[in-house]
Amino acid sequence: MQIAVLGYGVVGSGVVELFEKHKQGIISKSTQNNLDLKYILEIRDCTDSPYSPLFTKDFNDILNDDGVKIVVETMGGLHPAYDYVKASLHAGKHVVSSNKELVATFGYELLKLADKNNVNFLFEASVGGGIPIIRPISQCLAANEINEIAGILNGTTNFILTKMFGESMSFKDALLLAQENGYAERDPSADIDGIDSCRKICILASLCFGSHVFPKDTFTEGISSIKSEDVEYAKSWGGAIKLIAKAKKLENGKIHILVSPALVQNHSQIAHVDDVFNAILVRGDAIGEVVFYGRGAGKMPTASAVLADIIDCAKHDLRKKLFGWGAPVDDYVEDYMDMPVSLYVRAQIGDFLSALAHVEDVITGVTILKRKDAPGDELAFVTPPEKEGLLRQKLKKLPLNPLSIIRVTDY
Ligand code: HSE
Q1: Given pLDDT bands bounded at 50, 70 and 90, which one contains residue 323?
Q2: Residues with CB under 6 A from ligand 1
Q3: Nearest to 357 by CA among 58, 349, 41, 227
Q4: How far, in Å, from the CA of 39 to the mean position of ligand 1?
Q5: Cβ-Cβ contacts under 8 Å for 118 (sequence gap 6 or more)
Q6: Whose CA is closest to 175, among 187, 194, 157?
Q7: Set 38, 69, 93, 200: catalytic member
Q8: Torsion over CA: 291, 95, 322, 313 (sign)
Q9: Which atom of ligand 1 lies nearest, measured to the CA of 302?
Q10: The pTM is what?
């Protein structure tokens, strides 16, 4: 049984390295004595690589080779990844992918295609890097009705926010460091604008709630507008700012799904998840709350998840793993403006006392925040929870100029 790896970037090269490092153990766990790596598809010349005999630039070499039973897609992006994955499934090859954009966009279609061709389409590495999450949700927690899933799903932004909080590093320097460490996506805007987290929460929501959820239907906000002033206020409030992705099943049958920065209180398990680490909290009716924690990005953690899927495909060569979700449903995502939320607001004001009186008059029960050396024309506060749309309407009526509005979690 032979394997082909598509793409020799950070993840693909990690997969090859880890396979070679633990080859004997992997072969024995896979129960396939002849499991081996046959091809690496890469458009760049890699003549210096110790694996140079395996390289090809032509996908047809892989597609037309009946010995290749497992295709590992670590290219990223939609095209040609989608086309190669589709062709591989059609040809009766199992596919393992680390590509969250692909799964979030075409997951339902590709799972159906895999089913039709009696092969597996597995993507443990697409969410949470090295953290086991897809398999635990679909297997270990299968007896639960999962009603909520939330957490920190992007290592790069968590690394940046940790550096901004702990070392007062600028956003730009922290991003550069994340890129040097190989955490960031090819285009870092996918990380910092929340797009990567959005893809991951869509995959988890599809898996937990049973219908495909698309990124285009998910409100998404990134971290690039967070300022050092907000960091100071969050500290004085007793918490941190994290990029949170969450999805919740509602009683009306719809789901609430959203990605945005949020203030998280220090007593929350999520507040202390730092650096490149991710944490995913799952709430189920039988289990209560369970949190998965670990390295959410990086070459070897992600390769670890890919290799586990390869082993699973090899073990289930003739017996397909039953797992997946259903077709997308119209009008499935609730308008986030109709959901209750607390907001942190930092605003420019005129007279402090009069602004304060206005705020307290219009929004009952706000908590006023303080920070050292705050200018006299600045006011920061946290509102009690209320429907987000109503809260924002109230804010518009106030005589203040909001500089920053950040949601507050209840996790
Ligand atoms: N850029 C992603 C992250 C890689 O930082 O989490 C793993 O998906």
Answers
A1: confident
A2: 129, 154-156, 183-185, 191, 196, 296-297
A3: 349
A4: 25
A5: 92, 320
A6: 157
A7: 200
A8: negative
A9: 7
A10: 0.97
Cα–Cα distance between 127 and 278 in angstroms, integer? 10
How far apart are the CA of 35 and the centre of ligand 1, in A? 29
pLDDT digits 0-9 by tens, 126-149: 999 999 999 999 999 999 999 999
User: Which CATH number fits the domain 339-408, given the four candidates 3.40.50.720, 3.30.70.100, 3.30.70.3190, 2.30.130.10?
Assistant: 3.30.70.3190
- Fold exhibited by the domain 2-129+299-315: Rossmann fold (3.40.50)
Q: What is the pLDDT, as a whole number, of residue 186? A: 65
The residue whose C-alpha atom lies closest to atom 7 belonging to ligand 1 is 297
How far does the centroid of ligand 1 lie from the alpha carbon of residue 155, in Å?
Answer: 5
Q: Does domain 134-295 have CATH number 3.30.360.10?
A: yes
* CA 41 – ligand 1 centroid, Å: 22
320 is catalytic: no
Residue 148 structure tokens: 């909520």
- Read off the tokens for 380: 């920061």
pLDDT higher than 80, residue 119: yes
Q: How confident is the model at residue 182 (pLDDT cuts 50, 70, 90)?
A: confident
Residue type, 345: V
